[in-house]
Protein backbone atom coordinates (compact mmCIF):
# COMPACT_ATOMS: atom_id res chain seq x y z
CA UNK A 1 0.00 0.00 0.00
CA UNK A 2 1.57 3.37 -1.04
CA UNK A 3 1.59 6.62 0.89
CA UNK A 4 -1.39 8.02 -0.98
CA UNK A 5 -3.57 5.09 0.00
CA UNK A 6 -2.53 5.36 3.63
CA UNK A 7 -3.30 9.07 3.70
CA UNK A 8 -6.71 8.51 2.12
CA UNK A 9 -7.47 5.76 4.64
CA UNK A 10 -6.42 8.03 7.50
CA UNK A 11 -8.72 10.79 6.31
CA UNK A 12 -11.60 8.36 5.92
CA UNK A 13 -10.99 7.15 9.45
CA UNK A 14 -11.07 10.72 10.80
CA UNK A 15 -14.32 11.40 8.96
CA UNK A 16 -15.79 8.19 10.31
CA UNK A 17 -14.81 9.05 13.90
CA UNK A 18 -16.34 12.52 13.53
CA UNK A 19 -19.55 11.09 12.19
CA UNK A 20 -19.72 8.51 14.99
CA UNK A 21 -19.24 11.21 17.64
CA UNK A 22 -21.97 13.35 16.12
CA UNK A 23 -24.40 10.47 15.85
CA UNK A 24 -23.64 9.21 19.35
CA UNK A 25 -24.37 12.69 20.75
CA UNK A 26 -27.69 12.67 18.97
CA UNK A 27 -28.45 9.17 20.22
CA UNK A 28 -27.67 10.24 23.79
CA UNK A 29 -30.41 12.88 23.58
CA UNK A 30 -32.99 10.68 21.83
CA UNK A 31 -32.30 7.32 23.50
CA UNK A 32 -30.64 8.09 26.89
CA UNK A 33 -31.08 4.57 28.26
CA UNK A 34 -29.47 2.99 25.26
CA UNK A 35 -26.70 5.58 25.23
CA UNK A 36 -25.89 4.81 28.86
CA UNK A 37 -25.61 1.13 27.96
CA UNK A 38 -23.22 1.98 25.15
CA UNK A 39 -21.05 4.08 27.50
CA UNK A 40 -20.85 1.18 29.92
CA UNK A 41 -19.68 -1.11 27.14
CA UNK A 42 -17.07 1.10 25.47
CA UNK A 43 -14.65 3.81 26.39
CA UNK A 44 -15.98 7.07 24.86
CA UNK A 45 -12.65 7.70 23.13
CA UNK A 46 -12.63 4.26 21.56
CA UNK A 47 -14.62 3.72 18.36
CA UNK A 48 -14.94 -0.06 17.92
CA UNK A 49 -16.60 0.09 14.52
CA UNK A 50 -13.72 1.14 12.31
CA UNK A 51 -11.90 -2.18 12.12
CA UNK A 52 -15.16 -4.09 11.92
CA UNK A 53 -16.14 -1.85 9.05
CA UNK A 54 -12.97 -2.69 7.12
CA UNK A 55 -13.45 -6.41 7.76
CA UNK A 56 -17.09 -6.32 6.70
CA UNK A 57 -16.33 -4.33 3.55
CA UNK A 58 -13.69 -6.88 2.63
CA UNK A 59 -16.07 -9.78 3.16
CA UNK A 60 -18.97 -8.19 1.28
CA UNK A 61 -17.04 -6.83 -1.69
CA UNK A 62 -18.39 -9.59 -4.01
CA UNK A 63 -21.90 -8.73 -2.78
CA UNK A 64 -21.44 -5.05 -3.60
CA UNK A 65 -20.07 -5.98 -6.99
CA UNK A 66 -23.15 -8.12 -7.61
CA UNK A 67 -25.34 -5.16 -6.76
CA UNK A 68 -23.38 -2.78 -8.94
CA UNK A 69 -25.35 -3.33 -12.12
CA UNK A 70 -28.57 -3.00 -10.22
CA UNK A 71 -27.57 0.36 -8.74
CA UNK A 72 -26.34 1.70 -12.06
CA UNK A 73 -29.52 0.67 -13.84
CA UNK A 74 -31.86 2.42 -11.41
CA UNK A 75 -34.02 5.10 -13.04
CA UNK A 76 -32.74 8.64 -12.88
CA UNK A 77 -35.99 9.76 -11.23
CA UNK A 78 -35.65 7.28 -8.35
CA UNK A 79 -34.50 9.07 -5.23
CA UNK A 80 -35.61 6.57 -2.60
CA UNK A 81 -33.50 3.82 -1.05
CA UNK A 82 -34.60 0.70 0.81
CA UNK A 83 -33.04 0.01 4.22
CA UNK A 84 -33.29 -3.46 5.73
CA UNK A 85 -32.27 -5.60 8.71
CA UNK A 86 -33.51 -2.95 11.15
CA UNK A 87 -33.85 -3.74 14.83
CA UNK A 88 -37.17 -3.13 16.58
CA UNK A 89 -35.97 0.01 18.36
CA UNK A 90 -34.77 1.63 15.12
CA UNK A 91 -37.55 4.11 14.37
CA UNK A 92 -37.89 6.94 11.85
CA UNK A 93 -35.96 9.36 14.04
CA UNK A 94 -33.02 7.00 14.34
CA UNK A 95 -32.87 6.28 10.61
CA UNK A 96 -33.16 10.01 9.87
CA UNK A 97 -30.19 10.65 12.15
CA UNK A 98 -28.11 8.06 10.31
CA UNK A 99 -28.20 10.18 7.16
CA UNK A 100 -28.65 13.66 8.68
CA UNK A 101 -25.13 14.75 7.73
CA UNK A 102 -26.05 14.57 4.06
CA UNK A 103 -28.64 17.31 4.50
CA UNK A 104 -30.61 15.66 1.70
CA UNK A 105 -33.22 13.56 3.53
CA UNK A 106 -36.83 14.35 2.59
CA UNK A 107 -38.70 11.64 4.48
CA UNK A 108 -38.27 8.32 6.29
CA UNK A 109 -40.85 5.54 6.51
CA UNK A 110 -40.53 2.37 8.60
CA UNK A 111 -42.91 -0.39 7.48
CA UNK A 112 -44.95 -1.76 10.37
CA UNK A 113 -47.33 -4.67 10.83
CA UNK A 114 -50.89 -3.34 10.61
CA UNK A 115 -52.14 -5.61 13.38
CA UNK A 116 -49.30 -5.44 15.92
CA UNK A 117 -47.64 -2.14 15.08
CA UNK A 118 -44.27 -3.91 15.25
CA UNK A 119 -41.59 -2.95 12.75
CA UNK A 120 -41.25 -5.31 9.79
CA UNK A 121 -37.51 -4.52 10.00
CA UNK A 122 -37.25 -2.50 6.80
CA UNK A 123 -38.17 0.94 5.53
CA UNK A 124 -37.59 3.63 2.93
CA UNK A 125 -35.58 6.85 2.90
CA UNK A 126 -36.35 9.51 0.30
CA UNK A 127 -33.72 12.08 -0.67
CA UNK A 128 -33.82 15.41 -2.49
CA UNK A 129 -32.32 13.96 -5.65
CA UNK A 130 -31.31 10.76 -7.39
CA UNK A 131 -27.66 11.76 -7.05
CA UNK A 132 -27.96 12.22 -3.28
CA UNK A 133 -29.56 8.79 -2.92
CA UNK A 134 -26.91 7.22 -5.13
CA UNK A 135 -24.11 8.81 -3.07
CA UNK A 136 -25.62 7.40 0.12
CA UNK A 137 -25.85 3.94 -1.43
CA UNK A 138 -22.22 4.05 -2.48
CA UNK A 139 -20.93 5.54 0.79
CA UNK A 140 -23.01 3.84 3.48
CA UNK A 141 -23.90 0.39 2.18
CA UNK A 142 -21.94 -2.16 4.19
CA UNK A 143 -20.57 0.32 6.74
CA UNK A 144 -21.52 0.00 10.38
CA UNK A 145 -24.67 1.64 11.72
CA UNK A 146 -24.28 4.05 14.67
CA UNK A 147 -24.89 2.57 18.12
CA UNK A 148 -25.54 -0.85 16.61
CA UNK A 149 -23.13 -3.67 15.89
CA UNK A 150 -24.43 -4.30 12.40
CA UNK A 151 -23.82 -2.87 8.93
CA UNK A 152 -26.16 -0.81 6.80
CA UNK A 153 -28.10 -2.92 4.30
CA UNK A 154 -29.25 -0.58 1.54
CA UNK A 155 -30.65 -0.90 -1.93
CA UNK A 156 -32.70 1.05 -4.44
CA UNK A 157 -36.37 1.12 -3.45
CA UNK A 158 -38.94 -0.31 -5.82
CA UNK A 159 -41.07 2.81 -5.44
CA UNK A 160 -40.82 6.35 -4.13
CA UNK A 161 -42.47 7.44 -0.89
CA UNK A 162 -43.68 10.39 -2.89
CA UNK A 163 -46.73 9.53 -4.95
CA UNK A 164 -44.69 8.34 -7.91
CA UNK A 165 -44.69 4.57 -7.89
CA UNK A 166 -43.43 2.94 -11.05
CA UNK A 167 -45.67 0.48 -12.85
CA UNK A 168 -46.03 -2.86 -11.17
CA UNK A 169 -43.78 -5.37 -12.77
CA UNK A 170 -40.75 -3.09 -13.10
CA UNK A 171 -38.89 -5.52 -10.84
CA UNK A 172 -38.78 -9.30 -11.35
CA UNK A 173 -41.00 -11.01 -8.80
CA UNK A 174 -42.11 -14.48 -7.82
CA UNK A 175 -45.26 -15.92 -6.28
CA UNK A 176 -44.80 -17.94 -3.06
CA UNK A 177 -47.62 -20.28 -2.06
CA UNK A 178 -48.38 -22.81 0.68
CA UNK A 179 -47.04 -20.49 3.38
CA UNK A 180 -47.52 -21.42 7.02
CA UNK A 181 -49.87 -19.16 8.98
CA UNK A 182 -47.06 -17.76 11.12
CA UNK A 183 -44.94 -16.52 8.19
CA UNK A 184 -44.55 -12.72 8.30
CA UNK A 185 -43.21 -10.26 5.74
CA UNK A 186 -39.91 -10.19 7.61
CA UNK A 187 -39.55 -13.98 7.78
CA UNK A 188 -40.39 -14.37 4.09
CA UNK A 189 -37.93 -11.62 3.22
CA UNK A 190 -35.13 -13.12 5.30
CA UNK A 191 -35.72 -16.60 3.88
CA UNK A 192 -34.92 -15.34 0.39
CA UNK A 193 -32.51 -12.49 1.20
CA UNK A 194 -30.18 -14.90 2.99
CA UNK A 195 -29.56 -16.57 -0.38
CA UNK A 196 -30.24 -13.80 -2.89
CA UNK A 197 -28.72 -10.38 -2.05
CA UNK A 198 -30.83 -8.51 -4.60
CA UNK A 199 -34.12 -9.20 -2.78
CA UNK A 200 -35.88 -5.87 -2.35
CA UNK A 201 -39.10 -6.70 -0.57
CA UNK A 202 -41.46 -9.47 0.44
CA UNK A 203 -45.18 -9.35 1.14
CA UNK A 204 -47.46 -11.93 2.72
CA UNK A 205 -51.05 -11.33 1.62
CA UNK A 206 -53.48 -11.08 4.55
CA UNK A 207 -57.25 -11.10 4.75
CA UNK A 208 -58.27 -7.48 5.49
CA UNK A 209 -61.19 -8.67 7.61
CA UNK A 210 -59.40 -11.15 9.86
CA UNK A 211 -55.80 -9.99 9.59
CA UNK A 212 -54.75 -13.59 8.97
CA UNK A 213 -52.39 -14.73 6.25
CA UNK A 214 -54.00 -16.06 3.08
CA UNK A 215 -51.14 -18.52 2.73
CA UNK A 216 -49.31 -16.87 -0.13
CA UNK A 217 -47.17 -13.85 -0.92
CA UNK A 218 -44.75 -12.21 -3.34
CA UNK A 219 -41.00 -11.55 -3.33
CA UNK A 220 -39.38 -8.82 -5.42
CA UNK A 221 -35.84 -9.03 -6.72
CA UNK A 222 -33.45 -6.48 -8.14
CA UNK A 223 -31.78 -9.02 -10.41
CA UNK A 224 -33.48 -11.17 -13.04
CA UNK A 225 -30.89 -13.95 -12.74
CA UNK A 226 -31.42 -14.25 -9.00
CA UNK A 227 -35.17 -14.40 -9.53
CA UNK A 228 -34.67 -17.26 -11.99
CA UNK A 229 -32.34 -19.02 -9.56
CA UNK A 230 -34.92 -18.68 -6.80
CA UNK A 231 -37.57 -20.20 -9.07
CA UNK A 232 -35.36 -23.24 -9.55
CA UNK A 233 -33.88 -23.55 -6.08
CA UNK A 234 -36.55 -22.48 -3.57
CA UNK A 235 -39.49 -24.64 -4.66
CA UNK A 236 -40.07 -27.07 -1.79
CA UNK A 237 -37.70 -25.26 0.60
CA UNK A 238 -39.16 -24.83 4.09
CA UNK A 239 -40.22 -21.44 5.39
CA UNK A 240 -41.25 -21.91 9.00
CA UNK A 241 -43.01 -25.29 9.17
CA UNK A 242 -44.07 -25.81 5.55
CA UNK A 243 -42.35 -26.19 2.16
CA UNK A 244 -42.98 -23.31 -0.23
CA UNK A 245 -44.52 -23.56 -3.67
CA UNK A 246 -42.93 -21.15 -6.14
CA UNK A 247 -44.52 -19.65 -9.24
CA UNK A 248 -44.14 -16.63 -11.49
CA UNK A 249 -45.80 -13.37 -10.47
CA UNK A 250 -46.95 -11.56 -13.58
CA UNK A 251 -47.82 -7.85 -13.80
CA UNK A 252 -51.51 -7.11 -13.88
CA UNK A 253 -51.82 -4.65 -16.74
CA UNK A 254 -55.19 -2.96 -17.15
CA UNK A 255 -56.68 -3.57 -20.56
CA UNK A 256 -59.27 -1.44 -22.34
CA UNK A 257 -61.05 -4.67 -23.27
CA UNK A 258 -62.33 -7.13 -20.68
CA UNK A 259 -61.38 -10.77 -21.11
CA UNK A 260 -64.27 -13.10 -21.79
CA UNK A 261 -64.54 -16.81 -22.33
CA UNK A 262 -66.64 -18.39 -25.05
CA UNK A 263 -69.77 -18.18 -22.90
CA UNK A 264 -69.31 -14.44 -22.34
CA UNK A 265 -68.18 -14.89 -18.76
CA UNK A 266 -66.01 -12.02 -17.52
CA UNK A 267 -63.03 -12.60 -15.26
CA UNK A 268 -64.28 -9.69 -13.18
CA UNK A 269 -67.85 -11.02 -12.83
CA UNK A 270 -68.42 -10.51 -9.13
CA UNK A 271 -71.23 -13.08 -9.09
CA UNK A 272 -68.91 -15.97 -9.93
CA UNK A 273 -68.05 -18.25 -7.01
CA UNK A 274 -67.11 -21.36 -9.01
CA UNK A 275 -63.54 -22.56 -9.49
CA UNK A 276 -62.60 -24.51 -12.62
CA UNK A 277 -60.08 -27.30 -11.93
CA UNK A 278 -58.12 -28.38 -15.02
CA UNK A 279 -55.65 -31.23 -15.44
CA UNK A 280 -57.50 -33.29 -12.86
CA UNK A 281 -56.41 -36.88 -12.24
CA UNK A 282 -59.15 -39.18 -13.56
CA UNK A 283 -58.94 -41.25 -10.37
CA UNK A 284 -59.92 -38.33 -8.12
CA UNK A 285 -63.46 -38.55 -6.73
CA UNK A 286 -65.89 -35.76 -5.87
CA UNK A 287 -65.19 -36.25 -2.17
CA UNK A 288 -61.42 -36.14 -2.62
CA UNK A 289 -61.73 -32.93 -4.61
CA UNK A 290 -63.98 -31.47 -1.93
CA UNK A 291 -61.46 -32.39 0.77
CA UNK A 292 -58.77 -30.41 -1.06
CA UNK A 293 -60.90 -27.25 -1.23
CA UNK A 294 -62.84 -27.35 2.04
CA UNK A 295 -60.06 -25.57 4.03
CA UNK A 296 -60.73 -22.43 1.99
CA UNK A 297 -64.40 -22.01 2.90
CA UNK A 298 -67.95 -23.30 2.71
CA UNK A 299 -68.65 -25.26 -0.48
CA UNK A 300 -71.99 -25.39 -2.31
CA UNK A 301 -71.21 -28.20 -4.74
CA UNK A 302 -68.44 -30.24 -6.36
CA UNK A 303 -68.75 -31.68 -9.86
CA UNK A 304 -66.35 -33.86 -11.90
CA UNK A 305 -67.72 -34.39 -15.45
CA UNK A 306 -67.01 -37.91 -16.68
CA UNK A 307 -64.04 -38.26 -19.01
CA UNK A 308 -63.22 -34.54 -19.17
CA UNK A 309 -60.15 -34.42 -16.91
CA UNK A 310 -61.55 -31.45 -15.04
CA UNK A 311 -63.84 -30.46 -12.20
CA UNK A 312 -65.82 -27.57 -10.74
CA UNK A 313 -66.01 -26.41 -7.14
CA UNK A 314 -68.64 -23.83 -6.21
CA UNK A 315 -68.14 -21.82 -3.00
CA UNK A 316 -70.69 -19.81 -1.04
CA UNK A 317 -68.45 -16.72 -1.08
CA UNK A 318 -66.34 -15.39 -3.93
CA UNK A 319 -63.51 -14.43 -1.56
CA UNK A 320 -63.13 -18.09 -0.59
CA UNK A 321 -62.96 -19.06 -4.26
CA UNK A 322 -60.25 -16.42 -4.81
CA UNK A 323 -58.25 -17.84 -1.92
CA UNK A 324 -58.59 -21.36 -3.30
CA UNK A 325 -57.35 -20.27 -6.74
CA UNK A 326 -54.31 -18.64 -5.15
CA UNK A 327 -53.62 -21.43 -2.70
CA UNK A 328 -54.14 -24.50 -4.90
CA UNK A 329 -53.19 -23.38 -8.40
CA UNK A 330 -50.37 -25.73 -9.40
CA UNK A 331 -50.88 -28.02 -6.40
CA UNK A 332 -50.94 -31.81 -6.68
CA UNK A 333 -54.40 -33.38 -6.34
CA UNK A 334 -54.36 -37.12 -6.81
CA UNK A 335 -51.22 -37.66 -8.87
CA UNK A 336 -51.38 -34.63 -11.13
CA UNK A 337 -50.74 -30.90 -10.90
CA UNK A 338 -53.98 -28.97 -11.33
CA UNK A 339 -54.61 -25.61 -13.00
CA UNK A 340 -57.29 -23.36 -11.55
CA UNK A 341 -59.31 -20.50 -13.01
CA UNK A 342 -62.78 -19.03 -12.76
CA UNK A 343 -65.69 -21.16 -13.87
CA UNK A 344 -69.32 -20.11 -14.07
CA UNK A 345 -72.05 -20.68 -11.53
CA UNK A 346 -74.60 -23.26 -12.75
CA UNK A 347 -77.44 -20.74 -12.33
CA UNK A 348 -75.81 -18.10 -14.56
CA UNK A 349 -78.53 -16.37 -16.55
CA UNK A 350 -76.51 -16.58 -19.77
CA UNK A 351 -76.90 -20.35 -19.82
CA UNK A 352 -78.21 -23.10 -17.57
CA UNK A 353 -76.31 -25.88 -19.27
CA UNK A 354 -74.37 -28.49 -17.30
CA UNK A 355 -70.98 -27.58 -15.77
CA UNK A 356 -69.23 -29.79 -18.30
CA UNK A 357 -70.13 -27.42 -21.13
CA UNK A 358 -67.73 -24.89 -19.60
CA UNK A 359 -64.74 -27.10 -20.27
CA UNK A 360 -63.83 -25.92 -23.75
CA UNK A 361 -64.51 -22.29 -22.92
CA UNK A 362 -62.53 -22.12 -19.71
CA UNK A 363 -59.87 -19.47 -19.53
CA UNK A 364 -57.11 -18.79 -17.09
CA UNK A 365 -57.35 -15.54 -15.19
CA UNK A 366 -55.04 -13.76 -12.80
CA UNK A 367 -55.38 -12.82 -9.19
CA UNK A 368 -52.98 -10.64 -7.32
CA UNK A 369 -51.81 -8.24 -4.66
CA UNK A 370 -50.66 -4.64 -5.29
CA UNK A 371 -50.31 -5.09 -9.03
CA UNK A 372 -48.92 -8.59 -9.05
CA UNK A 373 -50.76 -11.82 -9.79
CA UNK A 374 -50.29 -15.50 -10.30
CA UNK A 375 -51.38 -16.74 -13.72
CA UNK A 376 -52.98 -20.12 -14.16
CA UNK A 377 -51.17 -22.36 -16.64
CA UNK A 378 -52.93 -22.79 -19.96
CA UNK A 379 -53.55 -26.37 -21.06
CA UNK A 380 -50.41 -27.68 -22.74
CA UNK A 381 -48.15 -24.90 -21.43
CA UNK A 382 -44.50 -25.97 -21.79
CA UNK A 383 -42.56 -27.04 -18.75
CA UNK A 384 -39.37 -25.17 -17.96
CA UNK A 385 -37.69 -28.41 -16.98
CA UNK A 386 -37.70 -28.02 -13.23
CA UNK A 387 -41.15 -29.31 -12.42
CA UNK A 388 -42.83 -25.92 -12.72
CA UNK A 389 -44.52 -24.45 -15.74
CA UNK A 390 -43.93 -21.24 -17.60
CA UNK A 391 -46.77 -18.86 -16.92
CA UNK A 392 -48.47 -17.28 -19.94
CA UNK A 393 -48.48 -13.50 -20.01
CA UNK A 394 -51.39 -11.90 -21.79
From TrEMBL:
<dbReference type="GO" id="GO:0006397">
    <property type="term" value="P:mRNA processing"/>
</dbReference>
<comment type="function">
    <text>Heterogeneous nuclear ribonucleoprotein (hnRNP)-protein binding the poly(A) tail of mRNA and probably involved in some steps of pre-mRNA maturation.</text>
</comment>
<dbReference type="GO" id="GO:0005829">
    <property type="term" value="C:cytosol"/>
</dbReference>
<dbReference type="InterPro" id="IPR050825">
    <property type="entry name" value="RBM42_RBP45_47-like"/>
</dbReference>
<feature type="compositionally biased region" description="Polar residues">
    <location>
        <begin position="256"/>
        <end position="272"/>
    </location>
</feature>
<comment type="similarity">
    <text>Belongs to the polyadenylate-binding RBP47 family.</text>
</comment>
<protein>
    <submittedName>
        <fullName>Apoptosis-promoting RNA-binding protein TIA-1/TIAR (RRM superfamily)</fullName>
    </submittedName>
</protein>
<dbReference type="GO" id="GO:0005634">
    <property type="term" value="C:nucleus"/>
</dbReference>
<dbReference type="InterPro" id="IPR000504">
    <property type="entry name" value="RRM_dom"/>
</dbReference>
<comment type="subunit">
    <text>Interacts with the poly(A) tail of mRNA in nucleus.</text>
</comment>
<keyword id="KW-0677">Repeat</keyword>
<keyword id="KW-0507">mRNA processing</keyword>
<dbReference type="InterPro" id="IPR035979">
    <property type="entry name" value="RBD_domain_sf"/>
</dbReference>
<feature type="domain" description="RRM">
    <location>
        <begin position="79"/>
        <end position="159"/>
    </location>
</feature>
<feature type="region of interest" description="Disordered">
    <location>
        <begin position="251"/>
        <end position="272"/>
    </location>
</feature>
<feature type="domain" description="RRM">
    <location>
        <begin position="273"/>
        <end position="345"/>
    </location>
</feature>
<feature type="domain" description="RRM">
    <location>
        <begin position="172"/>
        <end position="251"/>
    </location>
</feature>
<dbReference type="GO" id="GO:0003729">
    <property type="term" value="F:mRNA binding"/>
</dbReference>
<dbReference type="Pfam" id="PF00076">
    <property type="entry name" value="RRM_1"/>
</dbReference>
<keyword id="KW-0539">Nucleus</keyword>
<dbReference type="InterPro" id="IPR012677">
    <property type="entry name" value="Nucleotide-bd_a/b_plait_sf"/>
</dbReference>
<keyword id="KW-0694">RNA-binding</keyword>
